[in-house]
Amino acid sequence: MTTIPIKIGVSACLLGEHVRYDGGHKHDRYITDTLGPYFSFVPVCPEVGCGMPTPREAMRLEGDPEHPRLVNVRSRIDRTDQMLEYCKIRVKELEGEDLCGFIFKKDSPSSGLYRVKVYNNGIAVNNGRGLFAAAVAQHFPLLPIVEEDRLNDPSIRENFIERVFSYRRWMDFLATGPTPGELVEFHTAHKLLMMAHSPQI
Ligand code: SF4
User: Fold this and answer.
1) pLDDT in tens, 120-178
2) What is the pLDDT of residues 98-119, one digit of tens each?
3) Sign of the four-CA dihedral 148, 149, 154, 156
4) 4 alpha carbon to ligand 1 midpoint, in Å?
5) DSSP alpha helix (H) spans, 41-130
6) Which of 113, 125, 190, 196 is 20 to 30 A away from residue 84, measured at CA?
7) Measured from the CB, is residue 110 less than 6 Å from ligand 1?
């Protein structure tokens, strides 16, 4: 028995919300039209959420890629503390949403998951992670997470969807207060799925 609907967090601009720094959106039809009938989406725009207006000045990550600062490109205002304070509160709120996955907007200094540009002395390296995406990944280490453009790859897409459903089943299973015998049953039911990915594991 799987809890319905299955909830997935999504960067709000991917759902067509006009929350981008330029007042636009990045509506992704695959998410809304193809995945939409199967999932319930929880939109999150961390930049608007932490109190920034739309439209707003563009920002970028700067400094140490491990601990980058979020800085306005033109005015040089450092927005890091404002964003980190929001992240701390928002991830706690998201615990109550019972999310089974998160789709992030690539390249964003707030929402990008992989290879986000970090500038140091005018030179950009593509190895950063947006501050909100990093907070979600750290707070929910088992949560299936992905960037929207990676869903164009059939194997990554299938893997993400498989993990979302497995995560839902796992959370539902834990909520029943299972016995050791039921845990064995759960593992048995998922054995072939696991072996399809890694017989060794
Ligand atoms: S990428 Fe993230 S922060 Fe930027 S507009 Fe989209 S949801 Fe908001």
Assistant:
1) 988 999 999 999 999 999 999 999 999 999 999 999 999 999 999 999 999 999 999 99
2) 999 999 999 999 999 999 999 9
3) negative
4) 27
5) 46-49, 80-95
6) 125
7) yes
Nearest residue by C-alpha to atom 8 in ligand 1? 45
How far, in Å, from the CA of 155 to the mean position of ligand 1? Answer: 26
Structure tokens, 7? 């909830």
Tokens of 39: 């999932």
Which secondary-structure segment (H or E) carries 70?
A: strand 69-72
Rounded CA separation 10/7 (Å): 10
Q: Which residue type sits at 120?
A: N
94, 132 in Cβ contact below 8 A? no
pTM, to two decimals: 0.95
Residues with Cβ within 8 Å of residue 59, at least 6 apart in sequence: 21, 47, 70, 71, 72, 73, 79, 109, 110
Question: Is the beta carbon of 46 within 6 A of some atom in ligand 1?
Answer: yes
